[in-house]
Amino acid sequence: MVSFGTYATLPAVDVRRFFCLPFFMFAVHPLCFRRAPIRSIHEQENREESDNTMNRTFESYKTVAFDIIREQLADLANSAEAREMARGLAPFMEEGELRRSMRDTTQARQMLELAGTPPMPAMEHTAGLVARSVRGELLTPEEMEEIGMFLAAVMRVRSYLDKGISYGIPLSYYGENLRLMPELKEEIEGAIRHGRVDDRASGTLRDIRRELLLLEEKIKDKAEALLKSQKKYMAEAFLVTRNGRLCLPVKKEYKSKIPGSAIDRSSSGSTVFIEPEAIARMQDEIEGLRIEEDCEERRILYTLMDKIAMEEEGFKENLALLAKLDFVFAKGKLSAQMDAREPAVNTEGIICLKEARHPLLPEDTNVPLDFKLGGDKRGMVITGPNTGGKTVAIKTVGLFVLMACSGLHLPCREADIAMRNLVLCDIGDGQDILDNLSTFSAHITNVLEILKRATRESLVILDELGSGTDPAEGMGIAIAILEQLRLRGCLYLVTTHYPEVKTYAGRHQELISARMAFDRENLRPLYRLEIGKTGDSCALYIAKRLGMPEDMIQTAASEAYGDRAVREQHCGRQPGGLERIPVPCIVPIRKKTVSANPEQAYGRGDSVEVLPKGEIGIVVKPADRTGNVLVQVKKEKRLVNQKRLKLKVKAGELYPEDYDFSIVFDSVENRKARHQMERKYMGDAEVRAEE
Question: Which of 364, 529, 546, 593 has the most other CB atoms within 10 Å of its CB?
Answer without folding.
Answer: 529
